[in-house]
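Z., the sequence and structure:
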Amino acid sequence: MDSVQEEPNVTSNGNPSHIQDKPKSYIKERIISSVVLMLYMCANVSSVPVFTQYIHSRYEDVYSNGTNSSSTSPNKQSPCLANNSEEADEVQVLVQQSTSFEILKLSLCVQIPPVIVNMVVGSYSDHIGRKLLFVSPLLGCICKYVVFILVVKFHLHLNFLILGTLLEGFSGSSSTFVLANMAYAADVTKTHATRTFAIVIADSSVSIAIALGQVMTGFLIEKLGYFYPSVINTALILLATTIVIFCLTETVKKTEVKELSPVVHLKKVFGFYVNKSRGNKRCIFIACLAVYALMSVGFNGKYTIETLYQLGRPFCWNPVKIGYYGAYSTVFMTISGLVAIKLGSACVRVEILAVTGMFLLMGSLILEGLASTDAMLYSVPLVASISAVSVPVTRSVLSRMVAAHEQGAIFSSMATVDTLCGAIGSTAFTSLYSATVETMRGMAFLVIAGVVFMAAMVKIVVIVKSPRQPGYVLLQSPTEDEHAHNPDRILPEGENNTPCSSTDKGPVII
């Protein structure tokens, strides 16, 4: 497969007159893909607090003998604040446990099917193109919201939500959409420096979109209930789908898929981690995937229970507070991560920044688990600060270790692990939260901190065992990028002399 990025940017006689043409031709693609990414994430990630708050409100109605107030009276006072008696505390525990169980069912429905989908869809996209990876999860998200709108409008049984989340799950869900964006970012970048920056920018776009979505959703729920926010989010997804179909440029030259067997594509997706011919790189692949898996378990577990944690005592936050906190947390950590990458990468290896972010994330999780006041909870993002760089750095390392025609496969392996570990994290920590909500509500956050600690230890071992490479400034094109297409360039000591890829000849920085 020949992607657009592999087309030569110099003439056969060595005339460099076209060297600057290729980067300019990618500006449109980067802007459009970022807009689509922001629209999708703004709408889709908002579904977690919307669904959680709606289900929580429905169970408050049930246990408080309410009637349909969750959709008709969004400004009603929450039973969490209305009564501080021992009986009210017992009711709140029941509400939290019931909501946890419903969220667990929905999480499994939306996370288990993508494990199967992502095993092969990324590898196929290296032949049939990237657009399918964008369109499929967009349509799945529309189905999820349409079912939710019907449940809210007609006050249907909560089990109907399972249908919508299953449809989204079999479309690939957000993990396939992230796979599409990361593979697309790799297609439109030529060097490991610009690729890392593109992936960090993509993650930052996600963060901005999430912040906007959470603020908007919080206000709309408080003023209008749960129906209209869902309608607006559906409209955003429809807009993103239209842009992908009619405006997004395909970056892959479609070729015939010579082998349709999923087994062959599974071997492509997971061959990086089992193929002994890759030499010492195989250990790096495995270690990076282990770090990525542990971080996925932690992040998915945290995000699944965080809104529920804020809804309960002693916080009893309303939708506006939850939206404000989500936006503030996301924006602050994103800006901190970008500043850390920009300034810190000139002095230390970015992997050092990633490990530092993991330890800060651990501290923030411990603080969140022990929080008893709003002020303590608002301090959590301050402690976490640069933790947002940990996952993008790991993605970038894996991406630049493979060839251009393997980008779909490598991101498919990450998406598969992300969905599988997401299901594990959501299940484990939602169950733990439900079991400990009556005794120690923050216990789940403390256990997540332990998972992040294990990821940090693995990353430290990799850094210590890997030879220090000279080119660790990621936001400036290193000198070796000028010779990125020189097949005779000798790699630094510790690497194979066979080039890592046709588009990325830079040293592997671990």
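DSSP finds 20 helices and no strands in the chain. The CA atoms of residues 114 and 379 lie 35 Å apart.

Let me know what you think.
H.
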